[in-house]
Amino acid sequence: MASITLKDIAHSYTGESENPDDFALKKLNLTWRDGGAYALLGPSGCGKTTLLNIISGLLTPTRGQVLFNDKDVTGLPTQERNIAQIFQFPVIYDTMTVFENLAFPLKNRGRKKTEIEPRVIELATMLGLENELHTKAQHLTADAKQKISLGRGLIRKSVNAILFDEPLTVIDPQLKWELRSQLKFLHKQFAFTMIYVTHDQTEALTFADEVIVMYEGEIVQVGTPEALFERPEHTFVGYFIGSPGMNILPCKLQEKNNIQVEGQTITLDKKYARIDPTAKIELGIRPEYLDLAPPGKGGLPARILRVDDIGRHKIVRVALGSRELNVVVSELTGMTGDETSLLVDTSHANLYINDHLISGEEL
Ligand SMILES: Nc1ncnc2c1ncn2[C@@H]1O[C@H](COP(=O)(O)OP(=O)(O)OP(=O)(O)O)[C@@H](O)[C@H]1O
């Protein structure tokens, strides 16, 4: 296992350029701890696969260095980086049995039968493939084939890191949950350095100790699932994490801890230094930290546009002046008519300047 450091990494598919827009990856600096479980999360086209390919050696970055345990591997080909990769679709030998497929990476490196056999059985058992060991892969379902792929990636204990590129895409939704838990368990057992690429926030948040959120070729936040939820450092993170995402409302900072949203004043729990008046200022508040009360019971006058009952709670779409936002309310919250009062839990309000979180001073 190894720690992985990205030092001033940038990549343009058209080669060196003066134009920042040519870069699929902007300047990245990051260290992935030895034995850590990370998820790389972001929308399609944000640069996740490009970054993974730079780590694995399939791509040489236009700028910067990749270090494995302080050793510069930027110029090394994939075969010399000693990493395992698992892709979206199964990469296995159809004519081989499950046992032969799992054993292949070890056999290929000249490992003894006495070492191979117990390891294959151990891993097959963890993945629930123990009863299929002597079945040819071609007779198995797509799910089972992808399990073999995962097993092949996990079989060698000595790899520097295991890279997963959307590995559960072909897996049946029911099984996804089970496999994610198995991967987490395997990580705890073997302490591999794991990097898991996905655009699915549930997958990222359940798998990883730390999530790296990417947006337009940049890392916008590295944090625990809790930090991404409570303190999104960029409006994109607020919007992307959570279902529905964070409400982002343009506002004006009036004085210290008072802001004005759609002509109404909200008093925040923190005070903020003077802000450049030309800057874009926004309030970020999660739907879970808003509530509704009957009109006239304090709060901000708002209008109910729609109510979606999704079982354990309701998602209410309300209009605050010309802005629309989501509010998550309990199943028991009664609503009569269109008029309502919007209650803001200001202890969970975040303020953003030009999309970046600013920290206020406790009052
Ligand atoms: N081989 C290539 N040549 C030119 N441009 C590329 C190439 N591969 C990717 N790109 C561009 O680089 C940017 C980042 O792509 P990348 O595939 O890394 O994103 P991603 O986050 O992995 O997206 P997805 O989830 O859709 O795979 C995109 O604008 C993409 O069009």
UniProtKB/TrEMBL annotation:
Residue ranges of domain ABC transporter in the record: 4-241
Any single GO CC term annotated in Swiss-Prot or TrEMBL for this entry: ATP-binding cassette (ABC) transporter complex, substrate-binding subunit-containing
Record has Iron-sulfur as a keyword: no
One function term, GO molecular function aspect: ABC-type ferric iron transporter activity
The keyword Membrane is annotated on this UniProt entry: yes
Q: Specify the superkingdom.
A: Bacteria
Q: Which UniProt keywords apply?
A: ATP-binding, Cell membrane, Membrane, Nucleotide-binding, Transport
Q: What's the protein called, per UniProt?
A: ABC transporter ATP-binding protein
- Originating species: Desulfomarina profundi
